[in-house]
Amino acid sequence: MPAPSDGDASANWCAQAASWSALVTHFRALLGTLSLPQTLVSSRWHDVLLAHRRMQFVSERLGAAAIFLAVVTLAWIPVDFVLIGGDTNLFGLIVLGRSAVFVAFLAIAGLRIDCYDPQQGIRAIGLTVATGVVFFAYVHAAFSMTGNNDLNQIGHAQYLLMPIALAAGIAIFPLTLLEAMALSCVPLLAVIFIASHETGGGIWIQIVAVIGLMAGVMLTTIVCSVSQLKLLVDLHANSAIDQLTGALVRRVGIELMTIEFAQARRTRRPLAVALLDLDLFKQVNDRYGHDAGDGVLRDVASGLRRRLRSGDALIRWGGEEFVVLLPETDAASAAAVMTEICHAGLADRPDSSRQTVSVGLAEADTDALRDWPELLQRADGRLYRAKQAGRNRLVDAGDTVIPFGRPEPLLLPLAELAPDLVPERAAGGLAGDLFAVTVRIT
Q1: What is the percent of the chain with per-residue pLDDT over 70, rounded to a whole number?
Q2: Tens digits of residue pLDDT in 101-118
Q3: Would you state the torsion angle of the CA atoms of residues 276, 281, 285, 287, taken in this order, to the nearest 10 degrees?
Q4: Half-sphere exposure of residue 347, counting CA atoms within 13 Å on the CB side?
Q5: Starting from the edge strand earliest in sequence, which strands make up the sheet with 321-327, in order?
Q6: 3-state SS string over the chain?
Q7: How far apart are CA 74 and CA 103, in angstroms?
Q8: CA angle at residue 184 from 180 to 189, to 5 degrees?
Q9: What does the domain layout of the chain look like in residue ranges?
Q10: What is the pLDDT of residues 148-199, one digit of tens each?
Q11: How many Cα atoms occupy the beta-carbon half-sphere of 145 within 13 Å?
């Protein structure tokens, strides 16, 4: 049998390398499908509007869930009487505990959750779960105190299902992965803690069975909660974003400004708004068509989004007008931010000149305004003054006109600017190569 040649060995090595490369590529693709967007992992990646909408869902569902739990807690007393009514001491302790939990659930149902505080709703869910866990521990202690330690007793065994019901109930809320894991682990930890203090041999068999069942319920709960959040995130993105520019649509912008203005009033923090209008944008549509105009709008919005800070918001207000919302930004800082963003233009026009903008700025505290429509109206008036002053400038909250940087000079062949003034190119002549220096029109 002939020995393999160097060529065969090289071919085999290449084939193995290709196989390993394909395997690594497949593994990376698999990991990619298992990865979650940041918005589904932690609430720190949620914008103000998404956080507010999520807390509205949480508030509505938590109120209904707490009322339901209160009614079930009280309505279960006849069942306890049938199962354990023979032991009056135990039954009395159970009724006392149920009455206290009934009041606690009613109090939770009456909570006014501040939808501007993303963590308040999560804390309220945690309080609801904790109330159920405390009652579970109380019932177990009551059975132990009265000498009813037999888990095979049907009146006792029914309460082992309570942690499972608590974990399953979390599934009705749109939660991030971390939130769902933390909340659903609380009932499981309660079962493990109580099991660690038991000495009976038979109890571990039932508790291990409950823990195994809870693990499946927890996994289902986490998937359901995160799936609800993903649906909410997708709906938010599809309904909130302008498809051309990637900015927020006007309707959503109004909702966001209402939220931000109310939050600024409550926390006594500044709130600035800038109204931008593209200079001489109508010329782009008239000379080059609406497709070219759409391209300029898209590039301007992209430039704005790229340069804005993480907490700022860009809203397409209409046509070639944009609103930039600047939370926790005073008048001087807002003017500095917008000057830095707009001083060199935001995009190229079809004629290669820079597309500049005029900006009107207003700030809630400086202008002593009562609501966001007044804030925007003040910015609109200053935008008009920026246009009158020559465009490509900003009028700040102190009515000071701040010109942006001058556009760069643009070199164009003189034949393109004034073809009648340039004689025909002679052989070897330079007349057709004369250049004129112009300033980009803004």
Answers
A1: 78
A2: 999 999 999 998 887 777
A3: -170
A4: 23
A5: 313-318, 321-327, 271-278, 357-363, 393-395, 401-403
A6: CCCCCHHHHHHHHHHHHHHHHHHHHHHHHHHHHHCCCHHHHCHHHCCHHHHHHHHHHHHHHHHHHHHHHHHHHHHCHHHHHHHHCCCHHHHHHHHHHHHHHHHHHHHHHCCCCCCCCHHHHHHHHHHHHHHHHHHHHHHHHHHHHCCCCCCCCHHHHHHHHHHHHHHHHHHHCCCCHHHHHHHHHHHHHHHHHHHHCCCCHHHHHHHHHHHHHHHHHHHHHHHHHHHHHHHHHHHHHHHHECCCCCCECHHHHHHHHHHHHHHHHHHCCCEEEEEEEECCHHHHHHHHCHHHHHHHHHHHHHHHHHHCCCCCEEEEEECCEEEEEEECCCHHHHHHHHHHHHCCCCEECCCCCEECEEEEEEECCCCCCCCHHHHHHHHHHHHHHHHHCCCCEEECCCCCEEECCCCCEEEEEHHHHCHHHCCCCCCCCCHHHCEEEEECCC
A7: 10
A8: 140
A9: 41-238, 250-407, 410-439
A10: 665 445 566 678 788 888 999 999 999 999 999 999 999 888 877 776 666 5
A11: 13
Write down the residue that tokens 């319920």 correspond to: 217
Which residues on adjacent β-strands are paired with residue 394? 359, 402
116-151 b/e (C-beta count within 10 Å ≥ 16 → b): bebebbbebbbebbbbbbebbebbbebbeebebeeb
Fold of 250-407: Alpha-Beta Plaits (3.30.70)
Structure tokens at 50: 């998404």
Length of the chain: 442
Please answer whether residues 55 and 113 qualify as being in contact, where contact means their C-beta atoms are separated by less than 8 angstroms: yes
Give the model's confidence band at 419: pLDDT under 50 very low, under 70 low, under 90 confident, else very high: very low
Place of tokens 């004034």: 418
The residue whose two tokens read 């390993």 is 20
Query: Closest by alpha carbon to 338, among 315, 367, 360, 366?
Result: 360
